[in-house]
Design brief:
The chain has 261 residues and is an alpha/beta fold. The protein is built from 4 helices and 28 strands. Strand 27 and strand 28 form a beta hairpin. The N and C termini lie far apart (53 Å).
């Protein structure tokens, strides 16, 4: 490992092989830096935080800071970050709260651009991109392969399902379905994330069926609950549609983001 002479590393911190702690960085108590982690310079990993292997954290990021919650009174709470993430300048990731799960969890292979914020008790999946200043309120849940546009904000307790895309400046006050495409203030559902689906290798016929299921669910006639049941039956062979159905049926503290809602 390489620790710059100007860096401060708490004696209780666990530093893995090949870790680089750059100039003027601070590593606090209860911190575990996995193999090959790089703190470029001026990075604060405050306390009680695990950073997975090969994650790179850029200048002026504050990772593992206290939760921004009036009820927090100094209890031991944690932040857990997976491997191979790129965390850019001025990003802030907060630890959990006793009132929540006590842990904020961030997956692997993510890109968190300048000023991105992950609030207390949030759960962030793998391969997530948060563009500049994208913000997650406390207890937000973000699925795998989600793209959050610059300056968007996900309300506390909000959910964004796997493979969804949220446009820049969007105020996400309602849950966004898996593979959905939402934007606006307040954010509305504008269809499926077609670009993301094509990048995953979906052909025209597969995309056409997914769009048909989407229209049947959100634009069909009758009561929404009946349409949901119909889609669940008629498109049972489409994994992505079943993910959407499961997402909608889960208990949530936020309403569902709907087209034109």
């Amino acid at each position: 490992m390489s620790v710059h002479p100007t860096a401060l590393v708490h004696p209780d911190a666990v530093i893995g092989d090949g870790v680089v702690v750059g100039p003027w960085s601070t590593v606090g108590p209860g911190v575990v830096l996995g193999e090959g982690v790089t703190l470029v310079s001026h990075v604060v990993v405050q306390q009680d935080t695990t950073v997975g292997a090969r994650t790179v954290i850029h200048p002026f990021a504050v990772i593992g800071g206290d939760p921004q919650h009036n009820g927090y009174k100094g209890e031991t709470v944690r932040l857990e970050i997976g491997s191979d993430n790129s965390i850019r300048e001025h990003a802030t990731f907060n630890r959990g709260t006793p009132q929540g799960s006590g842990v904020t969890r961030v997956g692997s292979n993510g890109l968190f651009m300048t000023g991105a914020h992950v609030g207390h008790d949030a759960i962030v999946g793998d391969n997530v991109v948060m563009a500049n200043s994208a913000t997650l309120g406390g207890h937000a849940r973000i699925g795998d392969k989600v793209f959050l546009g610059g300056l968007c904000a996900v309300h506390q307790n909000g959910r964004v399902g796997q493979g969804a895309i949220v446009g820049g400046l969007a105020a996400v006050t309602r849950d966004v379905i898996p593979y959905g495409s939402a934007w606006g203030n307040h954010a509305k559902l504008h269809g499926l994330n077609l670009i993301g689906l094509k990048r995953k290798g979906y052909g025209k016929d597969a995309v056409r069926r997914l769009l048909a299921a989407f229209r049947d669910l959100f634009e069909g006639e009758g009561v929404f609950a009946d349409r949901l049941q119909k889609v669940e039956t008629e498109y049972a062979d489409l994994v992505e549609i079943m993910e959407i159905v499961t997402f909608i049926r889960e208990d949530s503290k936020r309403p569902l983001c709907l087209p034109g809602d």
